[in-house]
Amino acid sequence: MLKSMMLKSNIIIIHNIISPYKTLLFNALHVAYDNFKVLYISESEHRREWEIDKDDIKFPYYVMFIVPADEVSPISLFHKTWRTLNVFKPEILIIDGYNYASSWAGLFWAKRNKRKTILWSSSNEDDHKRIFYKELIKRFFVKRCDAYNVYGTKSKDYLIKLGAKAERISIIGNNTDNAFYYNETMKWKKIRDTLCQKYAVPAHNFLYIGRFSEEKNIFTLLDAYKKAIEMSDEWGLILVGSGPQKRAIEEYIQKQKIRNVLLPGFQQKSEICKFLAISDVLVLPSVSEPWGLVVNEAMASGLPVLVSKRCGCYPDIVRDGINGLSFDPFDKDELYSKMKEIVEKKHDLRGMGEASLEIIKHYIPERAAEVVMETIKLVLRESE
Predict the structure, then answer these.
(1) Which of 117, 219, 260, 380 has CB 3.0 to 4.6 Å from 236, enough for a Cys bridge?
(2) Is 297 a residue whose pLDDT tops 70?
(3) pLDDT digits over 39-53, tens only?
């Protein structure tokens, strides 16, 4: 009976924008089960600079708005989502997050039409300062969903606090294209010395990849780095990215006379591996980070990682003393001391990089798709 229900069940995934890493998961889902469609608000939003290659998309999808997602009014989004669901009439709704009007339209539509809902959540309790009335609103949403998929342990703990039952939450783990990052990085590592000369960086480098924005805590990283290399010219810092703090960061580096810092700007996926190849440790100092997919990318490239304890990927894929180190992002001295230990060769970076490869090999789209399918089966069993 369950098998026949699976074959005919129409599933809609409500998502915000087309994103490369989610495309991997959706493609894997399409292989496992082809009767689903992704309902996007828009193709992109203003703060995203990545290129979208639609040839990579192997699953059916529908985009509701031509303009960027952050230009769509909540009222328009709610009504458009409701009307679209009336056309597609899904048996199961997978709702990615609760921040958009499309998520609320999906929840209310499902309740009105007696359909099952699965919430995908990446939020952690320490993402932001929590305000009691907003938490009550989230609790209202969470408690009305039938099952849940989350990236990691922190997200699961937060959902439980919001009223979800632990036994109905499954961890899918965040994932990326491990093979691509490994193969491309190894290719560029063969000419590492040449690349170091091209970019005028030292033989060893710390690497940051991400937006230049307040929650990323880049000034704390700069201060810790400056202090850690006071007695060494062998290490540099590469800051890959762009964002609202770009000019302030450039001015701070000049004013503080911080040596050996490279700012190559935002880089597409095809170029990222060059910087992974000339780096020795990835640093992610964020004070707010739902997961931190760059950690997956660095680990898939064989790098050890130095990661803030506020990042959602800690402690799931960041193991202290095994494949990297963690730190309190509000403690400059702790980050400095960890970076200084690395500069002073007190850690086996090669061994940590090998451990990263071993850990991250389990975080792949196919495995995440299996967990999603089990969650779908769970809610379908209750519909029998």
Answers:
(1) 260
(2) yes
(3) 999 999 988 777 888
DSSP state of 144: T
Phi/psi of residue 90, each to 5°? -70, 150
Residues 257 and 286 in one domain: yes
Cβ(349)–Cβ(285) under 8 Å? no
Check: CB of residue 325 under 8 Å from CB of residue 186.
no
Q: Looking at 192-348, which runs of residues are DSSP E strands?
A: 204-209, 235-240, 261-265, 281-284, 305-308, 324-327
Tokens of 278: 């000339």
Q: For the segment 88-139, what is each residue's pLDDT rounded down to a tens digit?
A: 999 999 999 999 999 999 999 999 999 999 999 999 988 777 888 889 999 9
H or E segment to which residue 15 belongs: strand 11-15
How many of the other CB atoms lie within 10 Å of CB of 111?
11
**Do residues 184 and 269 both lie within one domain?**
yes
Q: Coil, strand or helix: which one is 215?
A: helix
pLDDT of residue 359 exceeding 90, the answer is yes
- β-pairing, 235-240 vs 261-265, is parallel
Handedness of CA 51, 212, 295, 19 (dihedral sign): negative
Alpha-carbon distance of 6 to 184, in angstroms, equals: 38
pTM: 0.93
DSSP H helices in 42-152: 74-88, 101-112, 132-143
Tokens of residue 187, six digits: 């290719």
Question: How many Cα atoms are found within 13 Å in the side-chain-facing hemisphere of 123?
Answer: 21
Domain that holds residue 241: 178-360
Whether residue 270 is found in the same domain as residue 377: no
What's the pLDDT score for residue 238? Answer: 98
What's the CA dihedral at 341, 345, 349, 351 to 10 degrees? -110
Name the H helices within the chain: 2-8, 20-32, 74-88, 101-112, 132-143, 153-161, 178-189, 192-199, 218-228, 246-255, 269-277, 293-300, 332-343, 349-360, 365-381
Amino acid code (one letter) for 14: I
Q: What is the mean pLDDT of the chain?
A: 94
Task: Show Cβ contacts of residue 324 under 8 Å, excluding neighbours closer than 6 positions.
Answer: 281, 304, 305, 306, 307, 318, 352, 356
Q: How far apart, in whole angstroms, are the C-alpha atoms of residue 196 and residue 44?
A: 34
- Residue 116's CATH number: 3.40.50.2000
